[in-house]
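Bug report (template v2)

What were you trying to do?
Predict the complex of my protein with glutamic acid.

What happened?
Run completed; filing so the output is reviewed.

Input:
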Amino acid sequence: MTTTRFAPSPTGRLHVGNIRTALHNWMLARKAGGTFLLRIDDTDAQRSREEYVDAIRADLEWLGIAPDREERQSHRLEAYEAAFDKLREAGRIYPAYETQQELELKRKIQLGRGLPPIYDRGALELTEEQRAAKEAEGIQPHWRFKLDHGEQIQWDDGVRGSQKFDPATLSDPVIRRADGSWLYMLPSTVDDVDMGVTQVLRGEDHVSNTAVQIQMFTAMGAKPPAFAHEALLVGKEGKLSKRLGSLGCDAFRERGIEPEAIIALLARLGTSQPVEPIANREKLLETFDLSTFGRAPAKFDDAELDRVNTAIVHAMPYAAVKDRLPEGIDESGWHAVQPNVATIGEVGEWWRLVTGPIEQPEFSDEDRTYLAQAAQSLEWGDDPWAALTGALKEATGRKGKALFLPLRQALTGMNHGPDMGELLPLIGESEARSRLERAAG
Ligand code: GLU
């Protein structure tokens, strides 16, 4: 049974990179008929905020990637404590007393000698008495996880293929602060074990965390889940951009982007499959496959999102938009304006041509005569536009722009817009006649 999780820290709003990770975890679970968890990583009480938890839930709901279950790290402190005690008894966690400055100095010296800045395990050298002396001085220890240097770390990454790490090239990670609070590394591993997570899919900035966490799983007697690390999302220009880090659902909504457009883009961005305006999630799921993910950064381009969005809007059935349309628009109204809008928000602008009032341009005398003739020839049948333009063509010899443009301008006040054949029946006979008469002066 597949279980995936999306584990944001509620220290801010979701951005497009987080959304992508959430989506891919949701897709992995859905495709396998498994469970998708939302895990709120709120062990950092100072930076975590309830309003962000609410916003994360609301954003996921808007995107339609709602979790099957929610978990919170702040409710699981006992489990972390228990795991901590066990690992400590097993000699895999040790106290360390260095201050930030001491650690910084050690790093500088190592770098100065051309050595990698790996923690030197100085704390492991301390005798019982030295430790007692530190604590008598009032120095509380922070805690590190002791990596097993005797064992190479290896996994078959769902995106990156075979991965190997020599643990001696990694620092023993600090897992708990002197004030007892938790850093990310251990709680996440404990949760993945307890919650039966089978697949961890996250950004490649977590690759070295995975190396450490694999040893934690093993130390806890658990089988590590399958891991996959996707390449990061970058701006069109190819760089990690600040803008992407704050681009989230509110901005998308304001711009009139449909959740389905975000989903369609992010499902395939950075994969070998083409981004297409597919509003059907089942279809996207069919082709979703981690092995199609590339290792190059995925480029996020706003213009591409807009294109996908417009194509999706142009294919949206009335039933899907009905509740979001301005008052009075029925199915034929939607069909009339649909090809002319890039977002649902633009519908109102075109619909105003139907409901009026409209502002007509100045017409030449010749056109006024023509429009007076039009008002007289107006006949209301199945297709009043075809009937009107047919009759006028015959009677006046006008064709092309000269035939159509004054009519469109008189009937809508615009030089372009939705198909007149669809619009005219919506404007209605008496309103159409009065607009033509008004234009004729
Ligand atoms: N809270 C972590 C983050 O946002 C979770 C990483 C993970 O998926 O394990 O980076």
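What did the reviewer find?
The chain has 19 helices and twelve strands. The pocket of glutamic acid is lined by residues 7-9, 41, 184, 188, 202, 206 (CB under 6 Å).
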